[in-house]
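#struct-pred
JK: can someone run the complex with 4'-deoxy-4'-aminopyridoxal-5'-phosphate? inputs below
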Amino acid sequence: LLSKETVLVIQISMLADVLRDDQFAIEQRFIIMFYCDDLFDHSVTGTMNYSRFLTAVSAARKPSPIRILTELQQRSPPTLISLAGGAPNPSTFPFQSVIITLKNGGSIKFDEASMNRALQYSGSYGIPELISWMKDLQRALHSPPTVAYAAEKGRMEMCVTTGSQEGLCKVFEMLINPGDNVLLDAPTYSGTLAALQPLGCNIINIASDHHGMIPEALRRVLSRWDPAEVRRPGSTVPRVLYTIPNGGNPTGASLTAERKREIYQLAREYDLLIVEDDPYYFLQFQKPWAPTFLSMDVDGRIIRMDSFSKILSSGLRIGFMTGPQTLVERVVLHIQASTMHTSTFTQLMVSKLLQDWGQDGFLRHVDSVVEFYRKQRDAMISSADRWLKDVAEWHTPTAGMFLWIKLKGISDTQKLIMEKALEKEVLLVPGGVFNIDSSLPCPYVRAAFSLSTPQQIDEAFKRLSALIKESL
Ligand code: PMP
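RT: done, structure tokens with the ligand placed:
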């Protein structure tokens, strides 16, 4: 019945007893427990020793005793009498009940009891029914090899985050020290750069094309180091790789399954963690959907970010982090110390909707959203064909909501957009803001096909075309 950890500790303390040195016994026991904990991790997930990835700040985070009680209370039967929490009494809150009408004619009801719960503090991992629903979804979509969610030894965990942005920000703070080498394929999401750059790390750009990060380029960069150096204290070998695998923001690029497999193999060779930031996963225009890094993760080296922003609502702020238990726990400790939890109200709202829909209903909804964006994308491509053929180049994205357009003969789009485009009443994002050094010239612009009507998109490209021709 004993874990490996316990057995090893007993053996060592017996040895110390023989030496009749109590002080020695205590110290040895402590050190060996630490060491065995590492061994235990290895035995379950193969090669991972998560302690080498944590920053001192993250390693120092401790659970708040009050939050532990809240988690306990959340999982207890309603007969439990708790005098423990410092939660306010919801009977004093002014809100009585809510009925949210759905576009398909259904509704989500919050009666007084569920309203009281929705307006109260809740656990930092997320409300249990939402987490449980999401774990089932992750299992169905990715069947991660490291996971037996239901089994005691399951090493995967999930938590709710306030949008995937919160997860990203907290993951970076957990993993990245000033001076660390971090790998990503720029141009990349400006919110990622905003979270990463203040940490003082050295961002190494891996070349990419319209299929995303190029594995050969990653191999070339990594060949600056010897894989044997990886675990040497003070080693400068990168430990974190970040990428947006589907419908990249801003490039619209999607990684092929083959590239993902190659990148995962390199991550194994150099013991990298991969941050898979995938808010456009559900906006893939073709089926079958690409296999994710999580679905290949035999070691437990993937931290996956999902988001409901593009398929249910961006304002609800519901995102999810899926990854090794040890790392998710660190992020949850950070959540405990910062926001405490994502809004209970929005979590319950989404959870009620999902329970009502079931997995099939949810995936049918996703299909209808995909259909909408596919039409938008097609409209943007035909307008681009109509107005921009002579003055620009692009690749048709297979996921997401962005078209990444290279303007011919224009070395930097910053001035063109910020100074002249407004005069023509058309607005796009100059590509430079997505580069690690935003002051470098960049001939690209990002156009979103999410919000405007096909007619507006057509008119916008007509204006952009005139603008480019004038500047040339
Ligand atoms: N990652 C990427 C690549 C994004 O494009 C976005 C949103 N634009 C986010 C993360 C954050 O999304 P949210 O916080 O709304 O889930």
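RT: quick notes.
Residues 163-165, 189, 191, 244, 249, 277, 279, 307, 309, 314, 319 surround 4'-deoxy-4'-aminopyridoxal-5'-phosphate (CB under 6 Å).
The chain has a mean pLDDT of 89.
JK: thanks, will look after standup
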